């Protein structure tokens, strides 16, 4: 039962109208654009939707019982400890980096991990306390430092100490919780979901940067227990998906990104697609056969990129007498049954050409993931659980492909949720009838012909971002993310 059904119907109708008003509102002033910008990595610096958030319900239940009940998004802001708190992922990230790691950029062109940590608080303060509540008394200095547009990358290295940043985050969260307890805050569901999902996505961004750091500049947390790895449950094989039609995108009253809307019906021709992701072993065949030295497999721009950057293998691979891969904290032997990751779109496309196949379109991907129905996830609408996929595991890594048969899609595909993001062939653009909301800098600015859509999520992706309609997007040369692919024909 939807949490909203526990509140009076007139209130739910009011919330629905409020959500629609917020979707159509265009926030074009300079401040909004500053905090809307995507980050250095080409990943979504903002948000996707949290399908079950209901802040009015949460506030009502707290008034009655002192507990936000089962409203997931609201529970986060109330500091629940049942797994919903988004900061359980990124809170330990900075201490993992040693003395100078969090304040030092992981590489040229990237802001430090510590900057992203502070930016989370500044974004929350801007959208919830300033725009929603109307409070302009939050720290102007922190707003300046952690503004991605008005603070150049070089200046982003002159940061307050970690303790000061954490105190700022805690103070902003305390004020956000207070505002959520009031009728005006409880009714502003869209803003709270926006801020929540922004934080969840920045967690994965920080893990990309943590992975980039040399092992000598970070340490494995004491007492960390690796997640149990499933046995290899399926070998690769092709599935023939029959022709059909379905509604692609996000629909309904829940919060959704502008690039997921409007949902619309599309026709899909029959196509073939692999049950599982391309593995390290399979990609090794491309490397060993000269895939990185044969221009015929590459687009002109892809080959020019490869030569200019001296690319010879996936970013996650380490050459030597035997190939190894770099994990978050230490290097290890390559597992041939794990999905290849750390590959750009150019590399994925070249592999597909070498194999005589292609990348799936995002329409094909979503159809294969959800079928003709209205599934939120490949397995249905039930909330994500550990037996359904490799996700929500910020200290982990990839697992052998096909290891979560309970998360199978309607057409028999595996690993469509978690493990690694999946490149598609589709250029990132708006759906028919697209309207930028709440600001053009989240999506519209990146309809530039270079960005490609990625789907599915990785081991580090948080549960609310795993829905089948979510569209991530990266530049074609982006390869430091937890991104792989599967093939179609």
Pick out its properties:
disordered N terminus; 489 residues; single chain; alpha+beta; four-stranded mixed beta sheet; Four Helix Bundle (Hemerythrin (Met), subunit A); 2 domains; paralog of FGE (formylglycine-generating enzyme); three-stranded antiparallel beta sheet
What is the chain-wise order of helices and strands?
HHHHHHHHHHEEEEHHEEEHHEEEE
CATH homologous superfamily name of the largest domain? paralog of FGE (formylglycine-generating enzyme)
- The third-level CATH topology of the largest domain is paralog of FGE (formylglycine-generating enzyme)
Instruction: Report the end-to-end length measured between terminal Cα atoms.
Output: 40 Å
Can you tell me the CATH architecture of the largest domain? Answer: Alpha-Beta Complex
Helix content: 25-40%
| Number of individual domains | 2
Written description of the protein model:
- The chain is α+β, with helices and mostly antiparallel strands and 489 residues long.
- It is 32% helix and 9% strand.
- The strands form 4 sheets. It has a 4-stranded mixed beta sheet with strand order 10-9-8-11. It has a 3-stranded antiparallel beta sheet with strand order 5-6-7, with no helix packed on it.
- It starts with 8 loop residues before the first helix and ends in a 5-residue tail after the last strand.
- It folds into 2 domains: 17-217, Four Helix Bundle (Hemerythrin (Met), subunit A) (Up-down Bundle), CATH 1.20.120; 238-484, paralog of FGE (formylglycine-generating enzyme), CATH 3.90.1580.
- The longest helix is centred in the middle third of the chain and has 24 residues, at 189-212.
- Strand 6 (324-326) and strand 7 (331-333) form a beta hairpin.
- The chain has 14 helices and 11 strands.
